Amino acid sequence: MDCLFCKIAAGEIPSKKVYEDEQVYAFYDIDPQAPVHVLLIPKAHITSAADITPENSAVVAHIFEVAARLAKELGLDDGFRIVSNCGDIAGQTVKHLHFHLMGGRPFTWPAG
Ligand code: 5GP
Ligand code: ZN
């Protein structure tokens, strides 16, 4: 499959790894929107949050566990934001489920 994040998870395209296990790969965003901006992805391809099902949702819980641990390790003690853009209207540019973990600055709400 011609998927950028599948290739990054497989090591076929280089990235700055933050964490990896059998299910999850985490790496620094190439165009950071905050002092800390990490992407967490399932290694198995899921297109977006709209494609989470009872069969594949366990990895999502695992990603949030990893995100909480990474937030601590990266010093985001004051808080952080986790975002998953789903579909073109929400600004999803890479069609492989990913969670942005961002911190190190204040965030406004509602998001634009
Ligand atoms: P989206 O716009 O789909 O929510 O998020 C995709 C993210 O992937 C963007 O923040 C973008 O900067 C990041 N990105 C796109 N291509 C690459 C790449 O080749 N390497 C890395 N590390 N990040 C990428
Ligand atoms: Zn993929």
Describe the protein:
The structure is a single chain. With 112 residues, this protein is α+β, with helices and mostly antiparallel strands. Helix content is 20%, strand content 21%. The model has no long low-confidence stretch (mean pLDDT 97). The structure holds guanosine-5'-monophosphate and zinc ion. Guanosine-5'-monophosphate binds at residues 4, 15, 27-31, 39, 85, 91-94.
Could you provide a short overview of the structure?
This protein has 112 residues and is α+β, with helices and mostly antiparallel strands. It is built from 2 helices and 5 strands. The structure holds guanosine-5'-monophosphate (5GP) and zinc ion.
Q: In order across it, which strands form the biggest sheet?
A: 1-2-3-5-4
- Please summarize the sheet with the most strands: 5 strands, antiparallel
Total strands: the figure is 5
Specify the helix fraction band. Answer: 10-25%
Give the helices and strands as they follow along the chain.
HEEEHEE
Residue runs with pLDDT of under 50 for 5 or more positions: none
Shape: globular
Structural class call reads: alpha+beta
Strand fraction = 15-25%
Distance between the termini: 32 Å
- Count every helix, treating DSSP H or I runs of 4 or more residues as helices: 2
